[in-house]
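Propose amino acids for all 193 sites.
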């Protein structure tokens, strides 16, 4: 990733921490949570690897097509899942963006790794940048707590339909925060394209 090395390392840390949290969410008792968390862990770790500064590690040329294939398979899985649950469309856009970045890096001249320079802002990069910027703003706004009366003492654990309180990995606001951090990471990566 171009730009200041400290910013690249912050992005690596953010994406790796998000990927790790998503791995922990895979222990959820809710199958849909486990499935979504697995895809999000893949995205988090993939973004962390892509964000490592080029001065530290430059992947070999064959790695970029491999990344594209892995994220292409994840995109097909998200497309299949989106038939039944439309919220998987975001996963489809995210994995598609990772395929796009991987293909762009594979097509870059050998000496231009992590420089992403080019002639202006390609249309697809701009569209993805608009999507993820909007997603970050909307998700961030949803995380802001609404002001209102304090919930009853028993309502803080937010019991699930079976009557048991939700585990920390099943909390919707934590999943949103995870997706928000990956959206921020994607915006940062797309800005460098």
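Proposal:
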């Amino acid at each position: 990733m171009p730009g200041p090395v400290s910013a690249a390392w912050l992005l690596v840390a953010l994406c790796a921490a998000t990927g790790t949290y998503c791995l922990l969410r895979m222990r959820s008792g809710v199958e849909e949570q486990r499935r979504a968390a697995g895809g999000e862990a893949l995205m988090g770790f993939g973004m962390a690897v892509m964000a490592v500064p080029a001065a530290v590690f430059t992947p070999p040329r064959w790695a970029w097509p491999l990344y594209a294939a892995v994220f292409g398979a994840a995109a097909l899985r998200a497309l299949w899942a989106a038939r039944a649950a439309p919220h998987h469309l975001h996963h489809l856009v995210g994995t598609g963006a990772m395929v796009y970045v991987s293909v762009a890096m594979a097509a870059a001249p050998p000496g231009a790794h992590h420089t992403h320079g080019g002639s202006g802002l390609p249309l697809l990069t701009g569209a993805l940048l608009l999507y993820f910027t909007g997603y970050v703003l909307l998700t961030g706004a949803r995380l802001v707590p609404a002001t209102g009366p304090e919930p009853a003492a028993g309502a803080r654990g937010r019991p699930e339909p079976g009557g048991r309180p939700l585990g920390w990995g099943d909390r919707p606001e934590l999943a949103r925060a995870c997706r928000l951090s990956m959206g921020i990471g994607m915006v940062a990566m797309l800005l460098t394209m």
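Residues 5-25 form the longest helix (21 residues). The two ends are 9 Å apart (CA to CA).
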